[in-house]
Amino acid sequence: MKFYTIAVITVLFVALTAFITINAEGINKPQEGVGINWMTFEQAVKLNAKKPKKMIIDVYTDWCGWCKVMDKQTFSDPIIIEYVNANYYAVKLNAEMTDKLTFQGADYEFVVTNPANNKGYHAFAAKLLDGKLSYPSTVVLDEQYGRIGLVPGFLRPEQFDQMLKYYGGNHNKTTPYEEFTKNYKSPYGQ
């Protein structure tokens, strides 16, 4: 019985370390080719100080059904994974987290809207979404943390890919989105 328990623990440990690696900055990253390299906002800011990159922020909640569908369908798509990891710092931001977040000299905290059940929202999520708390929402920041994109709602992989390439290729600086979509070459064959 003792051998069996040790064997099970060893197998679980090996499987976990094969899935997750920790880099020099202490950021939990999926193994290359496994998934999007999600990180916290603070981790992305720290990396951006060393190597500037755009940031894609998935604003979600634990109870949001469409957020879970987006995780399963869009964020697990190999085309999306490859492009995000190469061109963006990817942030998962729980819009109901209770941790304090400090950014550019301002503190953002959880705001209680219903004291009876401690429901509310995080002030940083509200700032990113202009107070329109809709989940999921995708926010795109440029290398200087200016918001260049805000897309509320579920996005299928082909929609997300189009949006990623619009901002990732800096097309937003010269081309209206509608015009970009007319010339967009989808890797999904559409």
Provide a descriptive summary of the structure in words.
The protein is an alpha+beta fold and 190 residues long. It has 2 domains: 1-34; 36-183, Glutaredoxin (3-Layer(aba) Sandwich). It has helices at 2-19, 41-50, 65-73, 78-87, 123-128, 157-168, 177-183, and strands spanning 20-22, 28-30, 38-39, 54-60, 88-94, 101-103, 106-108, 110-114, 119-122, 137-141, 147-152. The strands form 4 sheets. Strands 3-5-4-10-11 form a 5-stranded mixed sheet. The chain has a two-stranded antiparallel ribbon with strand order 1-2. Strand 8 and strand 9 form a beta hairpin. Mean pLDDT is 87; it is low at 7-31.
Shape: globular
Please write the string of helix (H) and strand (E) elements: HEEEHEHHEEEEEHEEHH
Largest sheet: 5 strands, mixed
Strand content: 25-35%
CATH architecture of the largest domain: 3-Layer(aba) Sandwich
CATH class of the largest domain: Alpha Beta
Total helix count? 7
Can you count the beta strands?
11
Could you outline the blueprint of secondary structure elements for this entry?
Layout: H1 2-19, E1 20-22, E2 28-30, E3 38-39, H2 41-50, E4 54-60, H3 65-73, H4 78-87, E5 88-94, E6 101-103, E7 106-108, E8 110-114, E9 119-122, H5 123-128, E10 137-141, E11 147-152, H6 157-168, H7 177-183
Helix pairs in contact: 4-6
